[in-house]
Specification:
Strand content: 5-15%
Order of helices and strands: HHHHEHHEHEHEEHEHEHEHEEHEE
Strand order of the largest sheet: 2-1-3-4-5-11
CATH superfamily of the largest domain: Response regulator
Number of strands: 12
Number of domains: 3
CATH architecture of the largest domain: 3-Layer(aba) Sandwich
Radius of gyration: 24 Å
Structural class: alpha/beta
């Protein structure tokens, strides 16, 4: 049989199922056992048959694409450890469903709103991932008004009609502080992420609360924009204080690694004079000198779970539940030690 002439009926015959089952499997719709789906996909591969996404979209009024709007400076995004791994997790799910990911990188404000409006009005996507949640996030109301299905990455601080996929940062942040307290540190500072972001605030609140439980207050909480440059400036401000910290906890590894370099440039030894910890367990964290104590999340798994959840919403599954992922975990390396005597 010529591969070019294969049809959905040929796939059904090869797999020993109905044409309707083939349609369900290729469109990623629920209702089939995974073994049946695997058999259908294998038959399609053997015949070299692929449905036309254009034909699929016309037949079921779907775009067969999901959207992600990222409001970050592209220069910053290029070195971000989270989004590439998250997108890889999303793609691992979409590939098996014949879907695409539509990515837009925009600036905050009008450009961001316009990005969501374009996706909805042009019917370019069937749903979107809502990342970097803000306090009282106006995008939730916007997506409701646009009628665009969504899943939020973590839980908003106000009511939302969308399911959330949650990776709780707080236990990992608390574990870092507890680790430093066990080492004997009492002067600990935090370089936080943007105060507008829900997840950055959650990390800061966990940092302060863990110190308070030990009867301590932070030396300072410095705000930043998650960039290396801001990490360096925040580190310099902290080290210039009359009583500088003996340990600094950063909201991401990029700032922590930059802060480590700033401390060494100032003549300090890490960890003998200053302990440093990050968040993300990015690829370089293990290989800088000294290796960076940090908090390991799993953005790839985050992306997988978010894609599966959003597809449930798109497929019309009723009452899609929130998904709680295992919380981030502490990874201890050589950048933390007891404070100087």
């Amino acid at each position: 049989m010529s591969k070019q002439r294969s049809t959905i009926a040929d796939v059904a015959t090869r797999a020993g199922v109905s044409k309707g089952a083939v349609s369900f499997a290729l469109n990623g719709r629920p209702g089939l056992a995974q073994s049946t789906v695997d058999k259908i996909l294998a038959a399609a591969d053997e015949l070299g048959w692929r449905p036309s996404n254009r034909a699929r979209s016309l037949s079921v009024s779907k775009a067969f694409a999901l959207g992600l709007v990222i409001t970050r400076d592209p220069a910053v995004l290029s070195s971000d450890p989270f989004f590439p791994a998250f997108i890889a997790g999303v793609e691992s799910v979409l590939a098996g469903r014949g879907q695409a990911l539509v990515l837009q990188v925009v600036t905050a404000g009008e450009d961001e709103e316009a990005g969501y409006r374009r996706l909805a009005q042009d019917a370019r996507v069937d749903g979107v991932f809502l990342s970097d949640l803000r306090h009282a996030d106006p995008r939730i109301e916007l997506l409701v008004a646009l009628g665009l299905p969504a899943v939020t990455l973590n839980r908003p601080d106000e009511s939302s009609p969308f399911p959330a996929v949650i990776l709780d940062d707080r236990p990992g942040t608390s574990a870092v502080v507890e680790h430093l307290l066990e080492l004997g540190h009492t002067r600990i500072a935090h370089v936080a992420g943007p105060a507008a972001f829900v997840h950055a605030t959650a990390r800061s609140v966990a940092f302060v609360a863990t110190l308070a439980a030990a009867g301590l207050e932070p030396v300072a909480v410095e705000s930043s924009d998650f960039t290396a440059a801001d990490g360096i400036e925040a580190t310099r401000r902290l080290l210039a204080r009359p009583e500088p910290p003996t340990a600094i906890v950063y909201a991401n590894d990029r700032m922590a690694i930059a802060g480590l370099g700033a401390a060494q440039a100032a003549g300090l030894r890490v960890p003998d004079d200053l302990s440093i910890a990050g968040f993300d367990d990015s690829e370089l964290a293990e290989y800088v000198h000294p290796g960076l104590t940090t908090v390991r999340a799993d953005p790839f798994r985050f992306g997988e779970a978010a894609a599966r959840t959003l597809n449930q919403v798109v497929d019309g599954v009723a009452d899609v539940p929130d998904v709680e992922l295992p919380p981030a975990q502490l990874v201890v390396r050589k950048s933390t030690a007891a404070p100087p005597a």
